[in-house]
Amino acid sequence: MSELNNDRYLRALLRQDVDTTPVWMMRQAGRYLPEYKATRAQAGDFMSLCRNAELACEVTLQPLRRYPLDAAILFSDILTVPDAMGLGLYFEQGEGPRFERPLRSMADVQALPVPDPEDELGYVMNAVRTIRRELKGQVPLIGFSGSPWTLATYMVEGGSSKAFTKIKQMMYAEPAALHLLLDKLADSVILYLNAQIRAGAQSVMVFDTWGGVLTPRDYLEFSLRYMHKIVDGLIREHDGRRVPVTLFTKNGGQWLEQIAATGCDAVGLDWTTDISDAKRRIGDKVALQGNMDPSLLYAAPARIREEVATILAGFGKGNGHVFNLGHGIHQDVDPEHAGVFVDAVHELSRPYHGG
């Protein structure tokens, strides 16, 4: 078993004792850091940065040099899988991700390949191996993927969407096509995350960014069903250690019990769910990750500390809390404020542990 200097994050996910609540931030390697902007400029564009193992490693490690974070997260993008399926991913300036060949029919879905993670996605595995080597056991490395539903929204809409009309049209008018797509995506994500685990990821997370746009019935049928399939297909023991899996649905607070029942180790919370409520509902089954509103990092340091204290008090004593933002850190946040946040979690959480 590879030794870790700091395994707080993994211990918390397994609801074991820790000395202080572990903390990391979604999108902690990113545009709020000047050093990230410099590396991205050096790479030329976003996907070139993802595809260069040394540069992807560099930006993964940048936030760890600034802050005493308890985990590193692989620098990549959720759209690597649809890109590897041949849809022609590109990024419009100011528009976000787009696909040249969005899916429109059952025939389009039937033609999709399931990518080989060590071939078409080999650059991601190279990045994982490089990062694990350079971390030197400092903290665990998190691997991740988008959820099948979330990936499908981009693949059918052709990019980001506000109303999700194209995918909902497929869902209601051609459900068999969407189920086939989601099934292929679940198979692809299982292969992809298991390859990340074999390459060195010590925990994995599934981001269901758009599950919250569905009706309760449709969420269970078109999103959670396929995340459950992924959980069932993952390597859960590797290198002599349990590999915890976290599921995160943005705006998914109404489905916490059903998410916890998939067999995942942890449920991610956004800021619209009260953590004390989540703990009461599912805290005896899974760990909880979250859940400060990222916009609070615009506040004065005293207000950031106050919010950290409120969330810690909401969770209360006991194990099984990984502190995080309720979604990714915003790109115009002052890096100093992120430091205040991380330090506050470690300092203010100590009384909740031990004794």
TrEMBL record:
Catalytic reaction annotation: uroporphyrinogen III + 4 H(+) = coproporphyrinogen III + 4 CO2
First-level EC class: lyase
Main location: cytoplasm
EC number: 4.1.1.37
Site (Transition state stabilizer): D77
InterPro entries named in the record: UROD/MetE-like_sf, Uroporphyrinogen_deCO2ase_HemE, Uroporphyrinogen_deCOase
Binding site for substrate: R27, Q28, A29, G30, R31, D77, Y154, T209, H327
Pathway linked to the protein: Porphyrin-containing compound metabolism; protoporphyrin-IX biosynthesis; coproporphyrinogen-III from 5-aminolevulinate: step 4/4
Pfam families on file: URO-D (PF01208)
Record CDD domains: URO-D
Gene3D superfamilies assigned: 3.20.20.210
GO CC terms: cytosol
GO molecular function: uroporphyrinogen decarboxylase activity
Domain (Uroporphyrinogen decarboxylase (URO-D)) ranges: 22-31, 142-158
Keywords: Cytoplasm, Decarboxylase, Lyase, Porphyrin biosynthesis
Cellular compartments annotated: Cytoplasm
Single GO BP term: protoporphyrinogen IX biosynthetic process from glutamate
Family: Belongs to the uroporphyrinogen decarboxylase family.
Alphabetical list of NCBIfam families matching this protein: hemE (TIGR01464)
Record PANTHER family: METHYLTETRAHYDROFOLATE:HOMOCYSTEINE METHYLTRANSFERASE RELATED, UROPORPHYRINOGEN DECARBOXYLASE
Subunit structure: Homodimer.
Functional description taken from the UniProt entry: Catalyzes the decarboxylation of four acetate groups of uroporphyrinogen-III to yield coproporphyrinogen-III.
Name of protein: Uroporphyrinogen decarboxylase
